[in-house]
Amino acid sequence: FTASQELGTHLQAVLVDLLELSMQGKQAHWNVVGRNFRDTHRQLDEIIDAARAFSDTVAERMRALHIVPDGRSATVSASTSLPEFPGGEIDTSDTIDLITVRLEAVVGTIRDVHDAVDEEDPTSADILHAVIEKLEQYAWMVSAENRRV
Prior knowledge:
Elements: H1 5-31, E1 32-33, H2 37-64, H3 73-79, E2 90-91, H4 92-120, H5 122-143
Parallel strand pairs: 1-2
């Protein structure tokens, strides 16, 4: 099985968003300050590790389908759907909101391409299911920090 150009484009979109999530997560991890710093710092590490692992899985799936993944920094910054992460120190509450938006953006990208991916390659769609499940769980858990009843 060799992937179509469309499948390659869809998986590439997911790949760049996962790579950008891991990089922005590190930026947040290094610069978060304030209440619940330690918990937020550690939770960001979990998200970063997951994003890196998922990006590797997606890229290796692409290679298995004879698609050449492009994870170069210029490609990632030019094509990601994630908004730019602010510089400087960021309060934990703001960090929570910023990371939640980015988690939801990656999930949005995956959901946008999911049906087309599933139609051509259910195996790749299964990978996307696992990514969606985990990132949505992180979005819920991270955003709960700022929720009030």
